[in-house]
């Protein structure tokens, strides 16, 4: 288990990268730190590794307070974005390097390197040098080096961002299977929400040095707790429309959506609806939002339709093959139970 | 046609070529020529030098004074450049890597100052500093009468002087080289628990190996041909600090035996070439592996 208590990191010059963070990561969990660049996610990972020392607060691994310990004494393994393979060493030497530092005899560490290399599909590549490997192979060597020293925590910094798109999907599946097999607590940093949703058991969405939401992929996707998270999660950005509580509904973009409890009449709110839950219809519907088709983008199995409603752009989806022509009038009817209402002031979800 | 045209282009480079011809190429061939004559600075042989064939070379190769100067040069180059400047320069670059900007700038300026000052000025400063009666060093040590450093320990003084004088170059070259080591490699070493020595051996040195070879080649050749020792000790006392360039100067100008010193020059030039070849070979071996 990795625990972070009241962690604050201030860099010289007054930049506060981490602002009183609290976080618990369970044993064997695959945990994502997700956020835009500059949100502090990498600083948090590096602080857990010990590469940065916190201004205040503590990091625990298991029941050990590791805050004052050097990185090498924390029993963690880190994989860097550029893999950081030593170019003058062979694959075997790279994988065995942590064991060499731990003064294991040569025979033992080479056997261990061979064993792990075999597990990760590197058996035939052991005598090669990193420059002779593809990007995907290099990544697996970096993973093998991390696995070699049997750490209690894996730390991955943007593990997939140096791979091209197709390889990234393959590597993603590989990474998830490897983590399941080893069952070692893993923390990884990513700015790609799809990667976080696909890989992680739980996700911490970060912004401005603070955690905005922690939850499973499902929770974070279904019920983003603030408009920031709502905006960040999802491959197509969520529609965030201004609405107003009126009678037994909320008036938004010419339509009406159901009103949750805890709001007063006339209160302005932000209505969040994912385009995926906003089907485009060609006939009039009661309570539906209505406007003219402005742009149609093909996404493969579905198409993203941007509709102009009173000067506001709202995105909905339609199945592939049913796309309306631009300029035609369409109706958008939210899927029941998928409309999220946020308070205007602090952007928090009204549950 | 793009450019100046052949004739105008030649006109532009001609002055430079003439200067190179007059001051570099001609003296080189002149040295070759006088090496096989009994040319002297003064006297009958200055008026009408005779060709004596390989006599000068036979003389040089059987002259203990020549071997002594080579031996002194070897010590001078090895201790002050190959080891001294190299290690100190690298050490400074490594230590200043994480230092605060102001401290870094200050030390870099001080070290650079030793490098940019003219040799004659620097030599004068050191003579003043090491003087027996009024020297700064003796004053700091509280010795009276003081040690005549340049007389009693001429080679040690030269070695220390040259380390002080030349470290700036190595420091700057290694600073640049160290900034080319990816931070993630250093951090990987930190996370697996490498000590500083292990990090240097396994991560840093393999990365900067080529830089180190280039640096060693340059400072070796510069030190080998360095004439500043003459300004400090003039080769004395009793030839105890007479490194090769000083030996050549002393035979040619002081002793007046131009033919003989021409032969010595050629031998020294060949040794320089040999050194350069060895380094290039080593650099090429590093590239292919």
From TrEMBL, chain A:
| Cellular compartments per GO CC | ATP-binding cassette (ABC) transporter complex, substrate-binding subunit-containing
**Which of UniProt's keywords are assigned here?**
ATP-binding, Cell membrane, Membrane, Nucleotide-binding, Translocase, Transport
Q: Which domain of life is it from?
A: Bacteria
Give the matching SUPFAM superfamilies.
MOP-like, P-loop containing nucleoside triphosphate hydrolases
TM ranges: none
The terms under GO molecular function for this entry are: ABC-type transporter activity; ATP binding; ATP hydrolysis activity
Q: Which parts of the sequence belong to the ABC transporter domain? A: 2-233
* UniProt-listed Pfam families: ABC_tran (PF00005), TOBE_2 (PF08402)
Question: This protein is called what?
Answer: Sugar ABC transporter ATP-binding protein
Q: Which organism is it from?
A: Rugosimonospora africana
From TrEMBL, chain B:
The record's section on Pfam families has: BPD_transp_1
Transmembrane segment boundaries: 12-33, 70-94, 106-127, 147-164, 212-232, 260-280
Output the Gene Ontology cellular-component terms.
Answer: plasma membrane
What residue stretches are annotated with the ABC transmembrane type-1 domain? 71-279
Name the CDD domains for this protein.
Answer: TM_PBP2
PROSITE patterns from the UniProt entry: ABC_TM1
Q: Which UniProt keywords apply?
A: Cell membrane, Membrane, Transmembrane, Transmembrane helix, Transport
Where in or outside the cell it occurs: the entry states: Cell membrane
> How does this chain sit within the bilayer?
Multi-pass membrane protein
Family of the protein in this entry:
Belongs to the binding-protein-dependent transport system permease family.
Q: Which PANTHER family match?
A: BLR7065 PROTEIN, SPERMIDINE_PUTRESCINE TRANSPORT SYSTEM PERMEASE PROTEIN
Protein name, UniProt field: Amino acid ABC transporter permease
Native source organism of the sequence: Rugosimonospora africana
């Amino acid at each position: 288990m990795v625990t972070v208590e009241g962690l604050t990191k201030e860099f010289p010059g007054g930049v506060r990268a981490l602002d009183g963070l609290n976080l618990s990561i369970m044993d064997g969990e695959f945990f994502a730190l997700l956020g835009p660049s500059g949100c502090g996610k990498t600083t948090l990972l590096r602080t857990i590794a010990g590469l940065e020392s916190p201004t205040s607060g503590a990091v625990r691994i298991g029941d050990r307070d590791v805050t004052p310990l050097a990185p090498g004494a924390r029993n963690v393994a880190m994989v860097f974005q550029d893999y950081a393979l030593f170019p003058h060493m062979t694959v075997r030497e790279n994988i065995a390097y942590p064991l060499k530092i731990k003064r294991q005899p040569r025979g033992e560490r080479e056997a261990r390197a061979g064993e792990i290399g075999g597990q990760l599909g590197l058996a035939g590549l052991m005598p090669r040098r990193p420059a002779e490997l593809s990007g995907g192979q290099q990544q697996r060597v970096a993973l093998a080096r991390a696995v070699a020293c049997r750490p209690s925590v894996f730390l991955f910094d943007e593990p997939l961002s140096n791979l091209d798109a197709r390889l990234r999907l393959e590597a993603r599946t590989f990474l998830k299977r490897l983590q399941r097999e080893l069952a070692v607590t893993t923390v990884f940093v990513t700015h790609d929400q799809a990667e976080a949703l696909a890989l992680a058991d739980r996700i911490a969405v970060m912004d401005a040095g603070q955690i905005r939401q922690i939850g499973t992929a499902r929770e974070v996707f279904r019920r983003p707790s603030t408009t920031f998270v709502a905006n960040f999660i999802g491959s197509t950005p969520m529609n965030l429309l201004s609405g107003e509580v009126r009678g037994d509904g909320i008036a938004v973009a010419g339509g009406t959506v159901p009103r949750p409890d805890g709001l007063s009449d006339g209160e302005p709110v932000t209505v969040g609806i994912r385009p995926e839950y906003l089907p485009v219809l060609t006939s009039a519907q009661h309570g539906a939002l209505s406007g003219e088709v402005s742009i149609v983008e093909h996404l493969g199995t579905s198409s993203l339709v941007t509709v102009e409603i009173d000067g506001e752009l709202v995105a909905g989806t339609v199945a592939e093959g049913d796309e309306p022509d631009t300029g035609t009038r369409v109706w958008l009817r939210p899927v029941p139970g998928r409309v999220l209402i946020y308070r205007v002031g602090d952007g928090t979800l009204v549950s | 046609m793009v450019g100046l045209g052949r004739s105008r282009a030649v006109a532009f480079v001609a002055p430079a070529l003439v200067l190179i011809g007059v001051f570099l190429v001609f003296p080189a061939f002149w040295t070759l020529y006088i090496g096989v004559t009994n040319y002297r600075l003064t006297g009958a042989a200055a008026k009408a030098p005779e060709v004596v064939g390989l006599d000068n070379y036979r003389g040089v190769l059987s002259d203990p004074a020549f071997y002594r100067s080579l031996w002194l040069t070897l010590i001078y180059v090895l201790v002050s450049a190959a080891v001294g400047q190299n290690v100190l320069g690298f050490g400074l670059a490594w230590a200043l890597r994480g230092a605060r900007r102001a401290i870094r700038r200050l030390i870099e300026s001080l070290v650079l100052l030793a490098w940019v000052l003219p040799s004659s000025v620097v030599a004068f400063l050191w003579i003043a500093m090491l003087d027996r009666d009024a020297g700064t060093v003796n004053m700091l040590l509280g010795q009276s009468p003081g040690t005549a450093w340049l007389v009693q320990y001429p080679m040690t003084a030269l070695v220390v002087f040259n380390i002080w004088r030349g470290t700036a170059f190595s420091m700057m070259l290694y600073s640049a080289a160290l900034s080319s080591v990816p931070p993630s490699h250093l951090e990987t070493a930190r996370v697996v628990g490498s000590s500083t020595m292990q990090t240097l051996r396994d991560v840093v040195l393999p990365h900067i190996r080529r830089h180190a070879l280039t640096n060693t080649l340059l400072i070796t050749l510069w030190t080998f041909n360095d004439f500043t020792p003459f300004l400090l000790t003039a080769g004395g006392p009793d030839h105890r600090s007479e490194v090769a360039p000083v030996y050549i100067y002393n035979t040619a100008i002081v002793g007046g035996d131009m033919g003989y010193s021409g032969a010595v020059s050629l031998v020294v030039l060949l040794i320089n070439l040999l050194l350069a070849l060895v380094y290039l070979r080593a650099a090429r071996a590093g590239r292919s592996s």
